[in-house]
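Hi, here's the filled form for the chain we discussed.

Project: internal
Contact: R.S.
Residues: 558
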Amino acid sequence: MSPASRLPPLPSRRARLRDPSRSERSCVLARRGMVCASVPSAAAAGVEMLRRGGNAIDAALATAAVLCVVEPMSTGVGGDAFALLWSAREGRLVGLNGSGRAPAAASLAAYRERGLEHIEPGGILSATVPGAVRAWQDLSEGFGSLPLGDVLEPAIRAARDGFPVTELVAHYWWGLERAGALRNDAARRALTREGATPLAGEWFRMPALARTLEGIAKGGADAFYGGEVARAIVETSREEGGDFALQDLERHASTWVEPITSPYRDAVVAELPPNGQGLAALVALNVLGCFPSEEVATDTALAWHRRIEAVKLAFADRNAYVADPEHAEVPVAALLDPAYARRRASRIGERALPGVAPGLAGDTVYLCAADDQGNLVSFIQSLFTGFGSGIGCGDTGVVLQSRGAGFRLDPEHPSALAPGKRPFHTIIPGMLLRPDGGEGAPRPWIAFGVMGGDVQPQGHLAFVSNRVDAGLNPQESLDRPRFRYLDGARVRIEAPGTPLDEGGRLGDALAARGHEVLDPGPWMEDAFGGGQAIERLDDGTLVGASDRRKDGLASGLD
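And the returned structure, exactly as it came back:
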């Protein structure tokens, strides 16, 4: 058999200069380990852990901690974290929900008495208990091989000694500060230098955050939830008119959860269950899977139309049902029933359906890690909106998240605000499995995720369909142009001038089908998210990919 007639284990269109699915980046290949992140120094921290004998869990946590320093508008120790991981030791998929809860004093009646009809994503009332630090410790103790203090060393160095600010991070940092996202003096002290944000290439230090991270390294999560940091959070909350008490922080716990899965063609897609929106990604993929693979893989207006409509239908269900399952009944099984998917798919015709408004936008970091033991980690961490609530806490360097904006103030809605309740969450790590791991058991295939609020389930659908239906490699699957469904018939198209297989331009063809097509605009707005992915080939080779829309990279260990 000639080399040209063999199917490569890694498909690639790099040599096809006129192929619209061609990526400007090649995949990164390695055998001993791989880390993919949105900032290079964060990925380097993960690889450092692998070199020191750590596993993929240690690598993911080191990367996540460094991102709290070097991409502070998107993530921080004041935010939440979710993880999907394939444990080689246990031979199974594990899920961790590291999201925080509303303060015990945050009642629906009290908020309505303040005249609020919804919770704005900024200010102290949008803050919930930070869950990330407890999640770090739980993952480290449950599945890591290095002490958490060792894993946090790169983040402590970056905060204490400083780091060079990357290009897009500087762009978003500047824009958010100009828009008033840093809402109190403590946040401005921590995240500006004499009131100015750092420029691309400038060195920036965060000594207060370094001290907080050092405390966590020495005393574990309890140093965060029960010590000086917790007292600073409560005092700040009191000053700002919030509801936090020390007990809210001391009682916080992560939750180990069973991932939810659904087949897509010859693969299995895994997500975390609600209160996150991973369910919406599965519902949309189930609907898309009702159409032949060859009809949704091509660059035709019909293929794009069907993807958009599948997301639109899934968002209608997401908005109606997704909530904290400890406080509301979420009909997961019914929504994932194949018969339900077929009924929903039958509604997709030749023209755009009227839609239901989706949820809120946001800022997040996604990363993934793999090692040569067989562990595979899909990890996502977030402050929600840019710089979260914008509320800094004393001299700790901590800025609180704005996840409380995911609550509704409608008492009839399943995601209505309640004391100790988790809000609706946008962040979702994903994983693809192969159902052929022996005796029908699944085996890990690809860890993937796409950050960016409402774009996340849309990005998951695009990545999975690009990889499974179109046969693109992970880098091509991330880099291919995306859409972002907004509401009604409105959809933002990243590359409306994309030439279609049948001729004409994508934006014009979708408009002819009844979509209200919005141009992406002249500036980077994070409207289409940014993703990372690691695929494990049959021979154990790791294939890393990092989205062109971010500053990051895939970094391998040979």
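Let me know if anything looks off before we file it.
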